[in-house]
Specification:
Keywords: Calcium, Cell adhesion, Cell junction, Cell membrane, Glycoprotein, Membrane, Metal-binding, Repeat, Signal, Transmembrane, Transmembrane helix
CATH topology of the largest domain: Immunoglobulin-like
GO molecular function, one term: calcium ion binding
Number of helices: 4
Protein name: Cadherin-2
Subcellular location: Cell junction, Adherens junction; Cell junction, Desmosome; Cell membrane, Sarcolemma; Cell membrane
Helix content: under 10%
Organism: Tauraco erythrolophus (Red-crested turaco)
Strand content: 35-45%
Length: 765
């Protein structure tokens, strides 16, 4: 046991770590997830959210409660391991740091004097005095012995382990306590401490296989609860006992070995594990073979490596036809195989003797026959059958087929049926009857593994396959497809455009010539002669049509033969339409608004031409000479090739709606021009140039003269209606006066006779 002492300093409420360097003694073997020590952080504000971090995150992790855990399993070196623990305020991002130094614990037994000196030289926390730049070590106060406790102790409990003491107990009444996993953290209650004497005890037996070491922290406070010493770490190591038997990973192990294998051939590896310490004799295993069945041709056909569990052959004579399987009983013993003190367990190893390829595959016939229609793919044209005396469905029995001649272009492949082992000759590329009418293939059969040494392939491992190609009616095809034609737009209806013909690949069939028809013509511009394939126009070709995309117009035609069954093929005609200057430019937009005063009154207009260069811009803009009011009231200036500005020439123009004709000329040869009418709304504007009487102008519709003319028309229409009503009333009065002068007896209507008869005689007439 070596003394361990920690630093004591006056505590004040200052947020941060109470020490700059924290030292702890831990076991050399560190396991992933194992708690190592507690770091103490003082926060004066209980609401602060502190996040702990490590400078070596791949090795150490700090929990929110300040417990340092091992992130992975590793062995500590003989030299102290150092890393930095940081604490950061999540809100203010303020950060504090403390250096942690881990020293591996000494050996449990046989600790040399040199090792004892290493423990005494553990670096204890450093304290920097105020008004002093160098670091000085404080006085050491604590005396803590290292603790090693064997597992499965029978007690009695509680069992005293060590007494923790502070040098200040001579002048102060102190209270001792321990914290950490095993004390006040799960599993709780394993370790207790007498608060007065500082005696640390264990309350029940320990199990190293559950927890290999405990990391506690000892505290010393006065009767008022004030800390008088810095907390110090205590490591309690659980010493392993041989209380676990070896356990095989599998109770039955399966392995294979080829027949005829030489001595020393590797067969398989069996593995057992022991929950005891693998670095001590309690966990060191040794293997051996207890029995072998059957025992022929030798009772010792196999041996096992006592440390690794590798099973190898030790004798020759493995023959699958005689013995197909061996069963071995394997024993694993700990304590390095000590039969007196070691614990043992057994497992079964089943070794199957596998077949080797000592029988080659042989074809059942020297020549196989098949046929295939032309242009068909993925069809089986022939089945190749073989026999093999090796064990079925093994690499030594499974056949592979290889073509050695007769297919230079790779039109066939041979697949193997996994159940019957037959070779399936399959077409993978189309075959043209007019080019090849028959194929004669040379095929060789092999196994998935090479033949055993000294075995050769007989002539029966090679065969010939004769394949006949059947002629079928094929579809005609256009040449070229697609066909590109360049033509200026504007070609008149009835003009011959081009000839688009197809070819029939069936040279050996008796059939009439091809017939042509139109399949797709979106704009209905074309027709094709059904006999010679001559294409003529039925309408004017227009590049600006909605059916033309990127100057290209596509039409599809069909060529059909009269074979059995009839076949047809399609071809695409692509007409690249060249632009001509057949469209005059127009103004855009059609309506605009400006102010009735001279400033601001500019209107931006754009010339739009469906044609393309060189039949489009740059454009020329001008105003017509008539009527004279146009040039008197307006002026136009070109600002770019496609844009111009229209503005008032006079200082003031009465509010209203005006039609301003604009003559726009493109750059084509010859030029194309048009007069576009721009409807301009002249209105009163505010200081920002925005119209303030647009509604009134829109309501007016036209100018003042137009409104007066409309009102006059309405008045005249009303007068005509009134005159018509007066005339109708006067006519009614005259009709009533005439009716009073007629005698009712002389009413003509009373002298009219009605007959419901047809075909009357002369008297009736």
């Amino acid at each position: 046991q070596a003394p361990i002492k920690a630093t004591c300093e006056d505590m004040s409420c200052k947020t941060g770590f109470p020490e700059d360097v924290h030292s702890a003694v831990v076991s050399r073997s560190v396991h992933g997830g194992q708690p190592l020590l507690n770091v103490r952080f003082r926060s004066c504000d209980a609401n602060k959210k502190i996040h702990f971090g490590s400078s070596e995150p791949e090795d150490f992790r700090i929990g929110e409660d300040g417990v340092v855990y091992a992130e992975r399993s590793f062995q500590l070196s003989a030299e102290p391991t150092e890393f930095v623990v940081s604490a950061q305020d999540r809100e203010t991002q303020e950060e504090w740091q403390m250096r942690v130094k881990l020293t591996p614990e000494p050996a449990f037994a046989g600790t040399s004097e040199k090792d004892q000196k290493k423990i005494e030289d553990i670096v204890f926390p450093w304290q920097q005095y105020k008004h002093s730049s160098p670091l000085k070590r404080q006085k050491r106060d604590w005396v803590i012995p290292p603790i090693n406790l064997p597992e499965n102790s029978r007690g009695p409990f509680p069992q005293e382990l060590v007494r923790i003491r502070s040098d200040r107990d001579k002048s102060l009444s102190l209270r001792y306590s321990v914290t950490g996993p095993g004390a006040d953290q799960p599993p709780t209650g394993i370790f207790i401490i007498n608060p007065i004497s500082g005696q640390l005890s264990v309350t029940k037996p320990l199990d190293r296989e559950q927890i290999a070491s405990f990391h506690l922290r000892a505290h010393a406070v006065d009767v008022n609860g004030n800390q008088v010493e810095n907390p110090i770490d205590i490591v309690i190591n659980v010493i392993d006992m041989n209380d676990n038997r070896p356990e095989f990973l599998h109770q039955v192990w399966n392995g294979t070995v080829p027949e005829g294998s030489k001595p020393g051939t590797y067969v398989m590896t069996v593995t057992a594990i022991d929950a005891d310490d693998p670095n001590a004799q309690n966990g060191m295993l040794r293997y051996r073979i207890l029995s072998q069945a059957p025992s022929s041709p030798s009772p010792n056909m196999f041996t096992i490596n006592n440390e690794t569990g590798d099973i190898i052959t030790v004798a020759a004579g493995l023959d699958r036809e005689k013995v197909q399987q061996y069963t071995l009983i394997i024993q694993a013993t700990d304590m390095e195989g000590n039969p007196t003190y070691g614990l043992s367990n057994t497992a079964t190893a089943v070794i199957t003797v596998t077949d080797v390829n000592d029988n080659p595959p042989e074809f059942t016939a020297m020549t196989f026959y098949g046929e295939v229609p032309e242009n068909r793919v993925d069809v089986i044209v022939a089945n190749l059958t073989v026999t093999d005396k090796d064990q079925p469905h093994t690499p030594a029995w499974n056949a592979m087929y290889r073509m050695t001649g007769g297919d230079p272009t790779g039109r066939f492949t041979i697949l193997t049926d996994p159940n019957s082992n037959d070779g399936l000759v399959t077409v993978v590329k189309p075959i043209d009857f007019e080019t090849n009418r028959m194929f004669v293939l040379t095929v060789a059969a092999e196994n998935q593994v090479p033949l055993a040494k000294g075995i050769q392939h007989p002539p029966q491992s090679t065969a010939t396959v004769s394949i006949t190609v059947i002629d079928v009616n094929e579809s005609p095809y256009f040449v070229p497809n697609p066909k590109l034609v360049r033509q200026e737009e504007g070609l008149l209806a009835g003009s011959m455009l081009t000839t688009f013909t197809a070819q029939d690949p069936d040279r050996y069939m008796q059939q009439t010539s091809l017939r042509y028809s139109k399949l797709s013509d979106p704009a209905n511009w074309l027709k094709i002669d059904p006999v010679n394939g001559q294409i003529t126009t039925t309408a004017v070709l227009d590049r600006e049509s909605i059916y033309v995309q990127n100057n290209m117009y596509n039409a599809t035609f069909l060529a059909s033969d009269n074979g059995i069954p009839p076949m047809s093929g399609t071809g695409t005609l692509q007409i690249h339409l060249l632009d001509i200057n057949d469209n005059a430019p127009q103004v855009n937009p059609k309506e605009a608004t400006t102010c009735e005063t001279l400033q601001p009154n500019a209107i931006n207009i754009t010339a739009v031409d469906p044609d393309i260069d060189p039949n489009a811009g740059p454009f020329a803009f001008e105003l017509p000479d008539a009527p004279a009011s146009i040039k008197r009231n307006w002026t136009i200036v070109r600002i770019s090739g496609d844009h111009a500005q229209l503005s008032l020439r006079i200082r003031f123009l009465e509010a209203g709606i005006y039609d301003v004709p604009i003559v726009i000329t493109d750059s084509g040869n010859p030029h194309a021009s048009s007069t576009s009418v721009l409807k301009v709304k002249v209105c009163q504007c505010d200081i920002n140039g925005d119209c303030t009487d647009v509604d009134r102008i829109v309501g007016a519709g036209l100018g003042t003269g137009a409104i007066i003319a409309i009102l006059l028309c309405i008045i005249i229409l009303l007068i005509l209606v009134l005159m018509f009503v007066v005339w109708m009333k006067r006519r009614d009065k005259e009709r009533q006066a005439k009716q009073l002068l007629i005698d009712p007896e002389d009413d003509v209507r009373d002298n009219i006779l009605k007959y419901d008869e047809e075909g009357g005689g002369e008297e009736d007439q």
